[in-house]
Amino acid sequence: MEGLVGHVLSVFMGFFAIMNPIANTPVFLGLTDGQSAAQRKRTATRALLLSLVIIVVFCAAGKLIFSLFGITLPAFRITGGILVALVGFHMLQGGEHSSVQHPSEEDKDDSGDDVAITPLALPILAGPGTIATAMNYASAGTVTDFVITSAAFAMLCLITWLFFSSGERLVTLIGDNGIKVITRLMGLILAVIGVQMVLAGIAGAISAYGIGG
Questions:
Q1: Out of 9, 30, 66, 67, which could bridge 103 as a Cys pair, Cβ 3.0 to 4.6 Å?
Q2: What distances in angstroms separate CA 137 from CA 10, 177, 184, one per listed residue?
């Protein structure tokens, strides 16, 4: 039971670190500038529902995707781990998460629906790093792994919605420096998760190909 709880927390924290709803809240406010509170909530709801659908599809179809493109699990874990670790290292250096993009004037002029789809759902919320993380957690292909991964991401989507809905108060409360500190902390967690994925991939490759045996 303790192992299951620990795994659930690990999956949730992995998603929390890479989505970083705290750092993405100012971006959301910029993209929805000019919208009313009700419109912002609708935009957040659509973006997060689409993100959830994307992640659930990749979790469910992971094995099919691997088979279709001839991808092995060790290779995916190594590549995905490098990608996640690079995002983490970039955040640690004080850079922004690759998905944290400042809105252009063109983005701001888009309708709420367009903003909800891109850039919010893709690539800010369900970008390559998030997809790689989700597929890694669900890579065993068991129903339990699928349910845990999907449920953890759904819970994070709900939390992100709460952050987005109260975004202006959150940014005022935490401040720019607070957001920077949290972003660097999330970067450290991401870097560690990425390295763990790489190590798991290397161990799997050694076992699968009999390297060193």
A1: 30
A2: 10, 32, 23
